[in-house]
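Weekly structure sync - notes
Attendees: PM, LS, DV (DV joined late)
Agenda: review two folding runs queued last week.

Item 1: First target. Sequence and structure tokens pasted below for the record.
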Amino acid sequence: MANRTPGVTEKLLETAMQEFLSCGYRNASLRTIAEIAGTSPRAVYTRYSDKEGLFAALVSEQAETLKSMFRRYMADYHDKPVDEQKQLFHDEAFDSEYQGYIEASIDYIYANWNAFKLLICGSEGTKFSGFVDEIVEIEEHYTLLYIEFTGNDVVASGRANPKLIHLLCSSFIHGFFEIVRHDMPKEEAVTYIGQLQTFFACGWDQLFRP
């Protein structure tokens, strides 16, 4: 195996980040990335399988970490005793725990801003283009589990159906990531997400009431 020149990988990643941010995945050029990094396209291919492999090196860890954060919180709530789960939106401990989870998610996004900017705004043409919808699936899965586990009659009564559940989960999660799409300063994002939470909590509470 040929020796790799020290610092080339780091420079390639730095240059690739800027190229993908500027052009998006589809229009980004590996040749341009290599030239600005002071190396050749071959240096890219010896480190990454292709352009998507290079893109993945910039976003895969962050994507998986945030999905794991969402999934872990939902699973932790699902593991609570059913009587506690029935107090959704009416339990101060839950409100505090949920707020901590939201704040941790926002903190992680802003600590890894460029990666999430790529995931939300520049990933079309890659396997990461469905990143937000994967989180919607997590939210929807655990919402339906909540309905089943608590015996809530929201679906059985006809107040909602699975399509509406999907729509509401999708609306909240896609709305959450608007903070990235619109380049919101973190302080503004915290306020916006709080307002979004309040709106959806009231709606869900109304639907879930017998």
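Item 2: Second target, run right after the first with the same settings.
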Amino acid sequence: MTSRLDQPRDVRRTVLPRPHYDPESFGRLSERIARFMGTARFLVYMTIAIVAWMLWNILAPGFLRFDSYPFIFLTLMLSLQASYAAPLILLAQNRQDDRDRVQYEQDRSRNERNIADTEYLTREIAGLRMAISEVATRDFLRSELERMLKELDTRDGQKDPA
């Protein structure tokens, strides 16, 4: 039986219950951790911890040392830290990509609206210019009235030879 993409999946029953968590709060936490791991403060703290670890295991009395010279346990702890850091960083990057995608879509939509508004206003201005060119201006009316007065004066002058 093939599953259809337009219908929700059937609930799968598992032997062990799945842990329930809020993906949004987990995502925010992973972003905070990833941001902290990308700071100079984190590097300083890690350096201090590693140097303290090494100095303790070199200078402490033999019965207090817990990780002798090749520092196998330190290597294990750093590997464990890296194995958790990488997925947290990737999760934070994926969330940032999602936010960037939403922002891009909003910007594109806003730009399309601005272009449409600009085209509309351009058409309106062109229409107004065409309408204004057909409207008689004050200077045009004044010159026409002056021409008509001169024409009337010349007619009156020709009729009355007094």
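Discussion on item 2: Residues 45 and 51 are 10 Å apart (CA to CA).
Action: LS to circulate a short write-up before next sync.
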